[in-house]
Each structure stands twice: as C-alpha cells, then as structure tokens.
Amino acid sequence: MSFYLLGESAAVIQTRSPVSLSCQRRLWSMAQQLRAIGGYREVVPGMNNLTLVFDPDLTSGTAQLALLADLWSASDAQDFIPRSVLIEVSYGGASGPDLELVAAHAGLHPEQVVALHTAADYTVYFLGFQPGFPYLGGLPPVLATPRRDMPRLLVPAGSVGIGGTQTGIYPAATPGGWQLIGRSSVCLFDPILAEPSLLLPGDLIRFVAV
C-alpha cells in the first residue's frame, strides 16, 4: 500500500497486487465518497489505484494524501453500492462476425455462446483504451478466446467483443483486435454531457439479446 503525489495537483493511493474485487470495491466506495464531497477536478479509480485530481490553490497535496489514507482506513467493500445497467445487443451476423469463431473455440453452438454471455453478471473494473471503454470482469471461462492475430483496421462503435478472459464494448469506431460477437446501439460516451461516460467503474452490467 502506498500514497504519493503526481506533480502538485494529483494524489494517488496504490494498493497491492493482484487485483481483487474486494479491494476494488473499497476503492470504488472511496470514489463515491469523494464525488459526494465535490470540488475535485477528477476522481479516477483504476486497477489497484485511485487518482484524485485537485486544485492546488485550494488545498495541499499533503492534505489530500491524508484524506485518502483516512478514507481507506474507514472503507469497507460492503459500503459500495453498484449501479445496475442493462445493455441490449444484437448477436451474430454482420453485428458479430466472430461469434461462430468464438463458438468453435469453446466447442459450443453460437446460440449457446449467446446464452452464456447474456446469463452472466459483469463488473466494470475500469475504463480505458478509449474514452468510455469498459473492461468487464465476469466472462464465463469457457468463452475466453484469444485476440485476433491481425487486428481489424476499423471496429464499428457499439461492438461487443471478447479479448482473452475479458469482454467489453467499443464506444467509438476504432482499430481493434478483440473477437466481435455482437453490437449495441447504446451510446457509451458523450463528451458534451456533465458525466460523459455511461458506465463507471464498479457498475454491474447485464447483456440482453435483441
């Protein structure tokens, strides 16, 4: 466990590896409390860490490090209350060109892949790669599939993919190497909104086939 400053306007809490859901829940609980306090430029929970960006004209790094230490000591994984989000997905066909490949890799029929993918509850561990891209934990192990040897030059926005042991959704059109099994019409990131990302770390996600 460590607490340190990034320049003069950011404080970080870094927990020990490996990643655990219990530890992440404590960090997400801290993020909720810090957002409720308000006045921060950004509150950014990551994998095993949380970064607090503040105005150095209004407070000091020393004070924010002390606050992070106090919040961590008082935090409990049970304090975190996740949001639940349903995301509709059109599986297979042009929307999910790799569905049959994932099925063959798992020794399943495509319909079984869809049934398993929609039966699981997923946790947003963190956002990254591109704005609003959720890295989701909870993929049924049988569906784990290696990334493509040759990434696509363009993956359509809303594509739902599997990369190794994780599943995720592409918020915007971009090159990408995950196996695409479906597509959603949901907007995951809108920069003009006060809260531009639809999903936040800690959210519980459920996919619904349409």
Automatic annotation (TrEMBL):
User: Which Gene3D superfamilies does the protein's record reference?
Assistant: 3.30.1360.40, Cyclophilin-like
What SMART domains does UniProt report for this protein, alphabetically? AHS1
Quote the EC number: 3.5.2.9
Question: Which GO MF terms does the UniProt record name?
Answer: 5-oxoprolinase (ATP-hydrolyzing) activity; ATP binding
Which enzyme class?
Answer: hydrolase
> Which UniProt keyword terms apply here?
ATP-binding, Hydrolase, Nucleotide-binding
Domain spans labelled Carboxyltransferase: 1-199
Q: Domain of life of the organism in this record?
A: Bacteria
User: Entry's InterPro entries?
Assistant: CT_C_D, Cyclophilin-like_dom_sf, PxpB
Keyword presence, Heme: no
Q: What protein name applies here?
A: 5-oxoprolinase subunit PxpB
Lineage, uppermost ranks: Bacteria, Pseudomonadati, Pseudomonadota, Betaproteobacteria, Burkholderiales
